[in-house]
Amino acid sequence: MSSTAESQIFDRLATACVVAVLVMDRAEDAVPVAEALLAGGITAMELTLRTPVALDALREIKRIVPEMLAGIGTVLTPEQIAQVIDAGGEFAVAPGMNPRVVEAALASGLPFAPGICTPSDIERALEYDRRLLKFFPAEPSGGLAYLRVIAAPYAHLGVKYIPLGGLTAANMVDYLREPSVGGIGGSWIAPREVIRAHDWPRVTEAARAAVAVRDAQRRES
Questions:
Q1: Structural domain count, the chain
Q2: Which of 71, 112, 138, 208 could form a Cys-Cys staple with 163, CB 3.0–4.6 A?
Q3: Phi-psi region for residue 171, left (φ > 0), alpha (ψ -120 to 50) or beta?
Q4: What integer best gives the mean pLDDT of the chain?
Q5: Any domain includes 67
Q6: Which residue range forms the structural domain that includes residue 176?
Q7: pLDDT tens for residues 188-204?
């Protein structure tokens, strides 16, 4: 994938702005939850590699719900980059800044956002020309106040952050108002226990509420 193609994927993530982060226990739940998210207006999702069914779930989504922008999170090894591509993943995200994983993603052309939590993490990511970074864990690390401090020295470089970890329906608008934030990731939209219960209306309701907050913030800005 070319740098232009990566930019297009990242532009789609920026347009979606709110990314649903999911932990899946059953691959057969993937399509219903994707459809429930789309019904609520969420058009991007990250399936975490915290369970063994994530890649199979991704395959089902890309086969049946291709309009959903779907990627994989919790990518920890170079080998997983190839697995994400084989499953049809459109992007990948990591909790940390592992040079070997970044190099594998760059070599394969997979759009990739490494995780950062310190200025040193940011500078290592910049060495690989990464301009979209996952800020994790956002709230436990100090939240917006901390992000503003560590992001300030790099603001002139156009770096954008996707905070994840501790974000909720209550605090998402504060993050969306921050100029350095290019989008947010949220597990509260489709929690693991809600997926297990097959409560798709609840997923749609949470997605619709998040999209309403996003759209209201855009009208204000």
A1: 1
A2: 138
A3: alpha
A4: 97
A5: yes
A6: 3-215
A7: 999 999 999 999 999 99
Instruction: Give the phi and the psi of residue 77 in degrees, each rounded to 5.
Output: -135, 155
pLDDT in tens, 64-77: 999 999 999 999 99
CB 69, CB 93: distance < 8 Å: no
The token pair at 134 is 């996952």
**Is the pTM value of this prediction over 0.85?**
yes
Q: Which residues form the catalytic set?
A: 46, 134
Q: What are the CB-based long-range contacts (under 8 Å, 24+) for 198-206?
A: 198/29, 198/32, 200/32, 200/33, 200/35, 200/36, 201/36, 203/33, 203/36, 203/37, 203/40, 204/36, 204/37, 204/39, 204/40, 205/40, 206/40, 206/169
d(Cα 157, Cα 39) in Å, to the nearest integer?
A: 36
CATH number at residue 100: 3.20.20.70
